[in-house]
Amino acid sequence: MKRIISLLLLACIALSVLAGCESPEQKLEREVESVYFGVGPISFSDESVLTPDELGALKELKDLKEKAYRDKDIPALQKVKSDWDAFRAPIQTRISEIEAEARRIAEEAAQKAEEEAQVAIQKALEDAKSIADTLTAFSFGTFTLSISSRNHSIVYSYKYNIDVGNADMLKSSLETSTNLLASTFQLSVNALKDAGVSSPSVIVEYKDSNGNTIYSKEFK
């Protein structure tokens, strides 16, 4: 324990000696760097909103900061910081207001685009549901076809009402028949794209009587 206390005392003495040995030049250098870095970067996130006069004033502040640092002039650095704080505040407020307005416009545009997309999707659903009713009627109870939307996708969901037996064998047949109708489904996708729907698709899925997916494919 005495050894530890002795080592701590020696360390304290050594630090005191080192501090006392700091030359005036080293002390000045340290203080200059402290004030220099305290000023911080003289710049804005978006300088395109600045007027020519403001850009000129900004460049002048940058030059004065670097000159004061080279000259090791602490009062000059402190004045640059004071001037920079006063110069920055109203411009930063203006930039924040411009950015907020830009976000508002973007959000409104995105909302309008989504509303238009949903209108287009609902129209596509209405057009397709009449076909679904006809196909279901002609299936004589074998399956039920329901058509719904899922995000920006139109989903054709066939559900068998009977035992399909070997699902793996049926899967191959369903894949073939779905591919034969690929051009028809792709036309639906293209129509949604033309209506301005972002990343639309048509999903065709087949399920057994228990709701388990036998086969599905997405057209984009």
Number of helices, where a helix is a run of at least 4 consecutive DSSP H or I residues: 6
CA-based shape: elongated
Distance between the termini: 76 Å
Helices and strands: which structural class? Answer: alpha+beta
Describe the structure.
This protein is of the alpha+beta class and 220 residues long. It folds into two domains: 24-111; 139-219, no CATH class. It has helices at 2-20, 24-39, 52-70, 74-138, 167-180, 182-194; strands at residues 143-150, 153-160, 201-207, 213-219. Strands 1-2-3-4 form a four-stranded mixed β-sheet.
Quick recap:
This protein has 220 residues and is an alpha+beta fold. It is 66% helix and 14% strand. Strands 1-2-3-4 form a 4-stranded mixed sheet.
Secondary-structure blueprint:
Layout lengths: L1 H19 L3 H16 L12 H19 L3 H65 L4 E8 L2 E8 L6 H14 L1 H13 L6 E7 L5 E7 L1
Parallel strand pairs: 2-3
Antiparallel strand pairs: 1-2, 3-4
Helix pairs in contact: 2-4, 3-4
